[in-house]
Amino acid sequence: MLSYLFFKGCTIPASLPNVEKLALDVLPEIGINLIESDEFTCCPDPIRLQGASQYFWMASAARNIAIAEEKKLDIMTLCNGCENTLAIVNYKMKSNSELKRKVNEALKEIGREFQGTVKIKHFLQVLKEDIGLDSLKKMIKVPLTGLKVAGHPGCHLLMPNEILKFDNPVDPEFYDKFITALGATPVDYLTKSDCCGISLSLAGDKEASHQCIQNKLIDVQLSGAQIISTACPACFNQFDFGQFMLSRDNPRLKEKPIPVLYAIELLALAMGRSFEEIGYNLHRVKIPVEERV
Amino acid sequence: MKVLRLKYEKNEILEKNKAIEVCFKCSTCSKFCPITQNVKKYNLENSFITQLFEAEKPEALNDVWMCCACEKCVISCPQDTNPTEAFTNLKEKSYQEGYAPEMVYRLVDQLLQEGTVYGIKFTNLARKRAGLKDMEKNEKSMQEINILAEKTGLKKKEDQK
Fold first, then answer.
1. Which of B38, B40, B152 has its CB closest to that of A212?
2. Nearest 10 degrees: CA dihedral of A240, A242, A244, A250?
3. What residue of B is the nearest CA neighbor of A200?
4. A108 Cβ contact partners less than 8 Å away, ≥ 6 residues apart
5. Which domains does chain B have, with CATH numbers?
6. Closest CA to B123 of A278, A15, A279
7. Of A3, A69, A169, B10, which one has the fewest beta carbons inside 10 Å?
8. What is the model's pLDDT at position A293?
């Protein structure tokens, strides 16, 4: 059994608590033991809080990493944003001794120190590097045969590639392999590596944010996929809540909505959970998904 | 097509982001930028990146906060410049000088008060629906994060006024 310190972040506990619950419930079945901690604070997010002050952003991310170091555990996150921040800071602090000295100076005030002894991994990276998709495939209880899934890996898990080293940022393929391992069929679509538009929504440009969602979801419709799946809570909210709002005045999406399933929810279905058990009723877009054709 | 004319001379962007000097203004970054693709006022001839880099005082434009650091511009740049880094530096300047949207100052305040950006009250409403136990504020963590904010010189909402 592999043990990780579970970095929940802000968005999962607040807007996808069912995913947090599922992770703790389902992941032990595939050999991942998650240890909880209430000492963490926001990662902080790479879009806005990094912009507010890069020094503070680094120091508070380094504090989170230092907590894992004290417990001698690698971190696992379920969120692309958290992974992006923590992995970048971990990498920069390890490779730049001047920066490490500067940040540790701040950490000293709270009695902590960044040493650079742990790894930061997104759930998908754990699957790729520590579990392996071949072993995952053997552990699947109910293969999702016939389910056509469009994968959306999300920007912040792909770039900066020299730090995350996860997948090809231009033509990502791991998510599709993950879908295949669960027994479902991955469907390719043109805008797969495009942005979900969350930052446009956060910046208050609803029209542009909706344009992003529409570009992707109409493409998914055309590709023949039944659902879209992602492992980033920000992207999830765009496709779920964003689509719900957009479909009010978008006849194409109103007529044929595209449900979203989080990577953990998809895994849970393949581990024998029902739609009810994964918390599908908490989604905004919840039309029945025709499973296993 | 209009050629990018970056006002390097007057602009502090270059000061912090030397890599931009080798930009040969091909606009490839803009072709992949989700902002230029989706925000109405921007297009390939008048892109997000061009507009901000051409502005006299780009940090004063709210639009700089639209950048989601997806780094599509970084992947696509044939000259290995790093526009995303330039935008992060611009955001920092914008925040420091009080030009950032109100929402960003509120976000920082929220983080320093509760350690999460969503508000524990809101978070717990959703957790109750999913049958999960409440999230509680960790006082020691809050103390630590506030010391870090002070030590790193992070400006707060009240410093702004």
1. B38
2. -130
3. B66
4. none
5. 12-96 (1.10.1060.10), 102-156 (no CATH)
6. A15
7. B10
8. 39
Q: What tens digit of pLDDT does each residue of A210-260 get?
A: 999 999 999 999 999 999 999 999 999 999 999 999 999 899 999 999 999
By the CB < 8 Å criterion, does A52 face chain B? yes
Tell me how many residue pairs between chain A and chain B have CB atoms under 8 A apart.
183
Residue A200 touches chain B, beta carbons under 8 Å:
yes
Whether A55 contacts chain B with CB within 8 A: yes
Strand order in the sheet with A185-186: A185-186, A148-152, A227-230, A260-262
Indicate the pTM of the whole model: 0.93
Q: Which of A233, A227, A235, A237 is nearest to A185 (CA)?
A: A227
Token pair for residue A147? 């389910």
Q: Which runs of E-coded beta strand occur in A154-292?
A: 185-186, 227-230, 260-262
A11 neighbourhood in chain B, CB within 8 Å: 118
- A60 CA: distance to closest CA in chain B (Å): 7
User: Which domains are delineated in chain A?
Assistant: 2-123 (1.20.1050.140), 132-282 (3.40.50.11810)
Q: List, for residues A182-206, the tens digit of each pLDDT value.
A: 999 999 999 999 999 998 988 888 9
